[in-house]
Inverse folding.
């Protein structure tokens, strides 16, 4: 429908009507959304133009060249990557119109209330309850590993609405107001010393039924929209040679000949080869996507990078010897962004332990590869047809 | 090298073209029809494991022998990308054929000389048509940057028994020596699908194709192409191992379940699949870098070799293990793949040699 020339014309008109140098950042981003140039593949009226997703790059390049502000996507990744596609796919018109614009502009930060202390890999076993009370739902329970909960205005939430149904069929999906007095957010300090994440305690939190996404009891299916988008968003960026953690340790190796040993040299080269191959595999995946032939290789990338990051950062700590015995600082901080390659080797070593856990453990992803890609039979299961309330926990 | 280096050339094309897919289908159909595993098992202990007539069908009828050779020299004017696809299929089927040795290593060596030497150009034309098979008289283990043998007798020359002519490196240059002027003494190879022999040639035998410097450069170019494309053979072999293992573990029942439903096995197969995703990217990168004459080709070929050697061996070892007892038998073809994979790990340079090459190319020097 929309071709490149038309997109460029729209973009230039936006820039002419709202010169970035003289326009408030938020005002500019709102105007960009209203012009359909926020995410061009979204519908008209919701920040898009129903255009092919690939054309977004045309808009982004033109805006960047003009020095226009962006919406700082790294800081609102959960909103952009998970909440927005789910709201778009399952929200009512009112919900979409209410939430998508401030989400994209970054005026309202989102978080994800999915994992629980008793429901990690087995997310469908979750125990947070939502009970209908007139036009509202009343929610009680505990969530964990919630990035941005302390800054979020809204959350996507899954809760159990029917304990008598088998676990996948008794879940409902909501948008939760993080300013509700029943929401308590506590920092969750992790092995690096800092707290990227939170625990969230929900006590009598009231959610209007109008903020439900999808049907009652259909929340697991709705959550698949969210989770599929989460996996797509991991490992998608283009990486130059030595662009990841391998570049850090290679730089140390080159700069510090006194640290070198033969054993570390061999391991460094092993990792260098693996990192270069992972980079090429990422490039191949990107070429497949551009050619319109996406393969299942995406699920390989997260697994490969988790293992690589852990091995390489571990090697780097060893290489540093006496310095590897030290750690930058243990002060409890609440970083706004996670920089996987930033800070010192000890931090990288500890933080990368999360790479094989967050967003699906490596073990669960291997099951997914085995069953969905290779077609191997599932393990026998005894939890699928039993009422949730009768499951062992 | 102090900064991370983004390749400045155009990005490598890591996909398969439609032409390549068509070529793959033709080669796979021919091999399935003529050189199935049972056929190979019946031949590997005879004097010649090569299936009679197969080379003529593949090299002549499908025309794969001349993929690297320009059309004006009687070739197909294709590239290393297409040759890599042929090698994937030959690796899948563990086919005994002098393709890597003659149509890649010897051919690429002669391609480096054809502008200077009419004899080289003439020989190239014969190789491109598949009428003549050539073997470079170096041990199969020779890495692209290795010391090259100059003696009259060279051991572990691959496909020597199939060769009509040997390319022999001597102190004063490269010679083409007809096989009937050489002594070929077969050896007993670990990999029965790629026969090895000791080749002895008389000091004055054959026709000189190039002087010493040009000869060395040409041989290195031949070995580099061989190493880069061997990765595709290893990829194909590993793919077969995984597919066969998945197929078997879905069917084989123990404890009243398909054994492929146990996570202990599933995770190992899933891990192999991950390794194959990397191997495919690496092998394609090496083929494309060679095809485009990229300055990165020596580095990417070394990366592909270092990685794909390991993946092929692991895939074959897992294939044997996850097949249980049947995988240990002579009648099951898993051992053909295992022996090829293990020999390929040494062929055209070991992992360690390729890693050393990488270290030198990207400035990761060993301890002083």
């Amino acid at each position: 429908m929309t071709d490149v020339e038309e997109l460029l014309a729209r973009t230039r008109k936006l820039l002419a009507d709202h010169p970035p140098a003289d326009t408030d950042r938020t005002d500019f981003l709102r105007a960009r959304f209203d012009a359909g140039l926020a995410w061009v593949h979204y519908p008209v009226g919701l920040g898009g133009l129903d255009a092919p997703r690939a054309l977004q790059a045309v808009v982004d390049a033109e805006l960047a060249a003009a020095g226009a502000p962006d919406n700082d996507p790294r800081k609102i990744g959960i909103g952009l990557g998970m909440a927005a596609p789910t709201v778009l796919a399952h929200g009512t018109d009112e919900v979409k119109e209410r939430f998508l614009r401030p989400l994209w502009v970054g005026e309202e930060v989102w978080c994800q209330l999915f994992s629980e202390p008793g429901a990690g890999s087995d997310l469908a076993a979750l125990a947070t309850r939502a009970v209908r009370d007139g036009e509202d739902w009343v929610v009680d329970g505990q969530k964990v590993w919630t990035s941005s909960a302390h800054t979020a205005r809204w959350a996507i939430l899954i809760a159990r609405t029917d304990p008598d149904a088998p676990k996948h069929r008794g879940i409902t999906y909501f948008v939760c107001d993080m300013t509700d007095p029943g929401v308590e957010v506590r920092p969750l300090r992790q092995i690096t010393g800092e707290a990227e994440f939170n625990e969230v305690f929900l006590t009598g939190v009231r959610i209007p039924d109008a903020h439900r996404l999808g049907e009652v009891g259909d929340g697991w299916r709705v959550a698949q929209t969210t989770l599929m988008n989460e996996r797509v968003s991991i490992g998608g960026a283009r990486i130059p040679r030595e662009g990841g953690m391998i570049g850090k340790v290679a730089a140390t190796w080159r700069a510090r000949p006194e640290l070198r040993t033969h054993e570390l040299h061999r391991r460094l080269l092993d990792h260098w080869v693996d990192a270069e191959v992972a980079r090429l595999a990422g490039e191949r995946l990107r070429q497949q996507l551009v050619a319109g032939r996406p393969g299942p290789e995406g699920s390989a990338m997260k697994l490969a990078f988790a293992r690589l990051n852990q091995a390489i950062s571990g090697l780097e700590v060893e290489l540093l010897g006496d310095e590897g015995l030290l750690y930058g600082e243990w002060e409890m901080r609440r970083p706004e962004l996670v920089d996987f390659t930033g800070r010192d080797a000890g931090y990288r070593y500890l933080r990368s332990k999360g790479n094989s856990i967050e967003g699906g453990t490596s073990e669960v992803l291997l099951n997914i590869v085995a069953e969905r890609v290779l077609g191997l039979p599932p393990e026998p299961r005894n939890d699928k047809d039993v009422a949730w309330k009768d499951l062992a926990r | 090298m102090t900064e991370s280096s983004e390749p400045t050339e155009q990005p490598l094309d890591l996909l398969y073209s439609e032409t390549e897919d068509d070529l793959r289908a033709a080669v796979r159909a021919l091999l399935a029809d003529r050189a199935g595993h049972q056929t190979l098992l019946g031949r590997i202990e005879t004097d010649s494991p090569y299936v009679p007539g197969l080379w003529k069908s593949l090299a002549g009828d499908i025309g794969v022998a001349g993929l690297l050779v320009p059309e004006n020299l009687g070739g197909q004017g294709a590239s290393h990308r297409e040759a890599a696809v042929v090698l994937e299929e030959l690796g899948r089927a563990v086919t005994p054929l002098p393709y890597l040795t003659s149509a890649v290593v010897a051919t690429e060596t002669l391609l480096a000389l054809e502008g200077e030497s009419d004899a080289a150009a003439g020989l190239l034309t014969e190789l491109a048509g598949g009428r003549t098979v050539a073997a470079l008289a170096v041990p199969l283990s020779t890495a692209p940057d290795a010391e090259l043998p100059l003696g009259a007798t060279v051991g572990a020359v691959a496909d020597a028994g199939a060769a009509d002519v040997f390319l022999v490196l001597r102190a004063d240059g490269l010679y083409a020596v007809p096989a009937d002027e050489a002594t070929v003494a077969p050896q007993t190879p670990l990999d029965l699908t790629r026969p090895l022999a000791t080749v002895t040639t008389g000091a004055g035998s054959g026709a000189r194709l190039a002087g010493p410097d040009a000869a060395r450069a040409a041989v290195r170019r031949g070995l580099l192409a061989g190493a880069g494309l061997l990765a595709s053979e290893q990829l194909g072999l590993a793919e077969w191992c995984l597919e066969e293992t998945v197929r078997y573990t879905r069917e084989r029942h123990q404890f009243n379940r398909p054994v492929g439903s146990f996570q202990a096995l599933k995770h190992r197969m899933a891990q192999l699949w991950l390794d194959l995703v990397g191997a495919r990217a690496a092998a394609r990168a090496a083929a494309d870098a060679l095809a485009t004459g990229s300055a990165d080709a020596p580095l990417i070929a070394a990366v592909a070799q270092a990685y794909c050697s390991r993946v092929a061996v692991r895939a074959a070892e897992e294939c044997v293990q996850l097949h249980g007892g049947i995988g240990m038998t002579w009648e099951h073809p898993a051992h053909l793949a295992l022996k090829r994979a293990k020999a390929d790990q040494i062929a055209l340079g070991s992992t360690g040699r390729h890693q050393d090459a990488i270290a030198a190319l990207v400035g990761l020097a060993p301890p002083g």
Q: What stands out?
A: Residues 121 and 364 of chain A are 7 Å apart (CA to CA). Chain A is about 40% helix and 15% strand. The first helix of chain A runs from residue 4 to 17.
